[in-house]
């Protein structure tokens, strides 16, 4: 009759053989390979330009020469709430990757369990235990009591063997989403850099408008004084005084509006910097700021490799394609190994006895049968999301190329507009001076003087707005090319 030791030896040998067999089975897996990310066609150049390297490769300190602006951008990159949230999204993606890595490894749990069973007399266990207790080989602590306790102290494990590559694909998708979240952070940095620069140059433009308005207020006050003198001399009527005074009041109202716009822009900028409202230090006036004489954009193929939202969309598409492969593998059987090892006894006194050592392993294949509709639905969702990610990737590239072209055209067109407006302002200033002289000598009406003064004010404000538009086109081009996230 076999002894207890020989039975344990055979059980150990069988358990090890089962583990080796199932593990070798996992090595012969059939992996579902995800679809490759398709190559998107892009134009050979932007509006016929074949620049080798674009300004998107420049560090922001190279593009923006104003030290006040550079300090504001640095502050925003350190304190902006949106950027901090983007960093946390990276941490979430990394945690998801760690979870997917853990799914490839067996789970091991330390177990301390106790149970109690009372077997009926006319049951398999009841009759079997009764007959066992009558054996001459059973005595003392070996007798099975009824009710029968069950004590276990040891380790239990569960391990799904990745025979189809499903778990590895899940890990790959999770890692790809980590990369996508990092590109998302770069996208926030690029957008934040351009937005801070946009608001800064808007502030400079408003400062310029305020200076122009104040200069015109002074000139119009002198005009009011002059027309009052003319009225006292009987050369004009009260209507002329009223018209000049109304123009002065209108210009003063513009000053109040511009001041309020400055407050609003400063508050928007402070919000990006992650701080409460406070004055924003500015450098040189917008009139003294120089737009680069020539700007290079590089090639569209460089845009695809550099722009963060395009790279993020590409990563999302890659992850979605991997999800499709995972959904396909869900239709196949899963192989799970559940080994255990520990001390097992029906008496507490013998639990820590070496003879109570027990171990075992169970391997099982589970295949979906009645839940295939659920799996088909999950697969259909994965395919649809993959197609959606593909179209999003395509749309992002189209938008990127379009934005670059618009910014390039904007720089060219606004440069021509600025040159013409410089000439216009110079001519209108001469006209205003001439109208004043003619009015004093009685050769022009007061309406001609008012019209000339108003035309100078409008032209100077338009020129400031055009200068601002030039800088905004430059900033937008820098953002469109994916600059600022280095």
What key attributes describe this structure?
2 domains, 4-stranded antiparallel beta sheet, elongated, Outer membrane efflux proteins (OEP), alpha+beta, 486 residues, disordered N terminus, 10% strand, 11 helices
Task: Describe, in plain words, how this protein is organized in 3D.
The protein has a 4-stranded antiparallel beta sheet, with helices on one face. It is built from 11 helices and 4 strands. The longest helix has 69 residues, at 372-440. It is of the alpha+beta class and 486 residues long. The chain starts with a helix and ends in a 6-residue tail after the last helix. Keywords: Lipoprotein, Membrane, Palmitate, Transmembrane, Transmembrane beta strand. GO terms for molecular function: efflux transmembrane transporter activity. It is found in: Cell membrane.
Give a short summary of the structure.
The protein has 486 residues and is of the alpha+beta class. 63% of the residues lie in helices and 10% in strands.
Task: Outline the fold blueprint.
Layout: H1 4-27, H2 60-63, H3 67-79, H4 81-102, E1 107-117, H5 124-133, E2 148-161, H6 166-232, H7 238-272, H8 300-306, H9 308-329, E3 334-345, E4 357-366, H10 372-440, H11 446-480
Antiparallel strand pairs: 1-2, 2-3, 3-4
GO molecular function, one term: efflux transmembrane transporter activity
Main location: membrane
Keywords: Lipoprotein, Membrane, Palmitate, Transmembrane, Transmembrane beta strand
């Amino acid at each position: 009759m076999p002894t207890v030791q020989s039975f344990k030896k055979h059980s150990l040998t069988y358990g090890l053989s089962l583990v080796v067999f199932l593990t070798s089975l996992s090595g012969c897996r059939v992996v579902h390979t995800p679809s490759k990310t398709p190559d998107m066609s892009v134009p050979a150049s932007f509006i016929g330009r074949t620049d080798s390297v674009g300004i998107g490769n420049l560090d922001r300190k190279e593009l923006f020469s104003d030290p006040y602006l550079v300090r504001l951008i640095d502050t925003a990159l350190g304190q902006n709430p949106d950027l901090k949230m983007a960093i946390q999204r990276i941490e979430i993606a990394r945690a998801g990757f760690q979870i997917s890595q853990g799914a490839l490894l067996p789970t091991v749990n330390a177990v301390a369990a106790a149970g109690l069973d009372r077997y009926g007399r006319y049951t398999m266990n009841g009759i079997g235990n009764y007959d066992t207790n009558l054996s001459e080989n059973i005595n003392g602590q070996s007798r099975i009591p009824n009710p029968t306790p069950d004590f276990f102290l040891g380790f239990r494990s569960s391990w799904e063997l990745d025979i189809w590559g499903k778990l590895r694909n899940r890990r790959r998708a999770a890692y790809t989403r980590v990369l996508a979240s990092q590109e998302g952070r770069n996208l926030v940095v690029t957008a934040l850099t351009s937005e801070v620069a946009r608001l800064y140059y808007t502030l400079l433009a408003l400062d310029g408008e305020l200076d122009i308005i104040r200069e015109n207020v002074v000139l119009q006050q002198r005009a009011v004084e002059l027309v009052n003198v003319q009225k006292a001399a009987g050369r004009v009527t009260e209507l002329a005084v009223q018209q000049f005074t109304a123009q002065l009041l209108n210009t003063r109202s513009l000053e109040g509006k511009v001041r309020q716009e400055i407050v609003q822009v400063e508050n928007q900028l402070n919000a990006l910097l992650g701080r409460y409202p406070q004055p924003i230090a500015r450098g040189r006036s917008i009139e003294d700021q120089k737009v680069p004489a020539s700007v290079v954009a590089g090639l569209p193929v460089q845009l695809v490799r550099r722009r963060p939202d395009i790279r993020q969309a590409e990563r999302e598409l890659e992850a979605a394609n991997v999800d499709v492969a995972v959904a396909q593998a869900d239709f196949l059987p899963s192989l799970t190994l559940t080994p255990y090892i520990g001390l097992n006894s029906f008496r507490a006194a013998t639990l820590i006895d070496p003879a109570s050592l027990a171990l075992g392993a169970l391997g099982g294949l589970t295949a979906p049968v009645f839940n295939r509709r659920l799996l088909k639905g999950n697969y259909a969702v994965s395919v649809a999301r993959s197609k959606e990610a593909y179209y999003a990737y395509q749309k992002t590239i189209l938008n990127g190329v379009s934005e670059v072209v618009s910014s390039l055209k904007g720089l060219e067109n606004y440069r021509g507009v600025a040159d013409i407006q410089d000439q216009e302002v110079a001519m209108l200033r001469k006209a205003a001076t001439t109208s004043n002289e003619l009015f004093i000598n009685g050769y022009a009406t007061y309406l001609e003087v008012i019209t000339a003064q108003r035309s100078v004010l409008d032209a100077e404000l338009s020129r400031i707005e055009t200068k601002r538009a030039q800088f905004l086109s430059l900033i937008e081009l820098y953002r469109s090319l994916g600059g600022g996230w280095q």
